[in-house]
Amino acid sequence: MSYLHKFTVSAAVLYGLFAVFAPHARSRAANTEAKSVPTLDYPADYRKWVYLSSGIDMSYSATAPADHHMFDNVFVNPEAYDAFVKTGMWPDKTTLVLELRGSQEKGSINHRGSYQAEVMGVEVHARDDARLPGGWGFFEFNGAKTSQMLPQTAECYQCHAAHGAVNTTFVQFYPTLLPIATQKGTLSQGYKTE
Ligand code: HEC
Questions:
Q1: Is 61 near ligand 1, meaning CB less than 6 Å away?
Q2: Are 94 and 76 spatial neighbours (Cβ–Cβ below 8 Å)?
Q3: In this predicted model, what pLDDT tens digit does every residue of 55-80 receive, in sequence order?
Q4: How far is residue 174's CA from residue 182's CA, in Å, rounded to a whole number?
């Protein structure tokens, strides 16, 4: 008998004893599982994915701009991009990445305008119907290998649901996708009335 099998047997025996002496342990374990927060691994390859757009200093409020400039770059996994081109909707297992970068004006031969500098943050908007409550979840990465889904009370969900043009995503700002969604008739009612 291999080592692996031996381990399996003894684990099963232990579990049997545990279940007899602690009858509530099982349901408590199931509850913990249901409530545990879904996690996502850092999408390390996102720079090889499909590029959707860049924004600079985008802001949703009319207040004065911040004193430093910021770029954001949006990427999506190629399988999801292909499905969007066919249907105008995001399929299950879509991962969208928003990479935030600082802006620089002085460097090398540049005399005017701005170019992108260091990464300031990576945010993810992912669809996973089996794992994420509501199908979609938001995640923030600040150098960590995995991240927990942000609670559904976070402001991300509200703004994206109210204003995102397709499936709570900001397709209105992704110039290769907006014509597709328009043609397929998948733009949200909220976006169309804005
Ligand atoms: C007030 C509105 C608003 C809020 C709040 C907001 N976002 Fe967004 N988000 C946007 C806009 C607008 C874009 C489009 C950016 C672009 O065009 O470059 C965007 C794009 C994104 C994208 C790219 C994929 C997509 O869904 O279009 C991600 C990822 C993202 N946001 C994550 C987050 C996270 C995480 C939070 C919360 C911590 C958040 N956002 C909060 C407005 C918002």
A1: no
A2: yes
A3: 999 987 777 666 789 999 999 999 99
A4: 12
Tokens of residue 128, six digits: 């996973």
Distance (angstroms) between ligand 1 centre and the Cα of 164 equals: 9
Residue 126: half-sphere exposure toward Cβ, Cα within 13 Å: 26
Verify whether ligand 1 is closer than 6 Å to residue 160 (CB atom): yes
Residues in the chain: 194
Q: Which residues of 149-186 are buried (b: 16+ CB within 10 A; e: fewer)?
A: bbeeeeebbeebeeebbbbbbbbbbbeebbebbbeeeb
Q: What is the best residue among 73, 101, 156 to mutate for testing ligand 1's pocket, by most ligand atoms within 8 Å of CB?
A: 156
Q: Extract the tokens encoding 169.
A: 């995503």
Ligand 1 centroid – CA 29 distance (Å): 35
What tokens does 134 get? Answer: 């509501």
34 pLDDT band (50/70/90 cuts)?
low
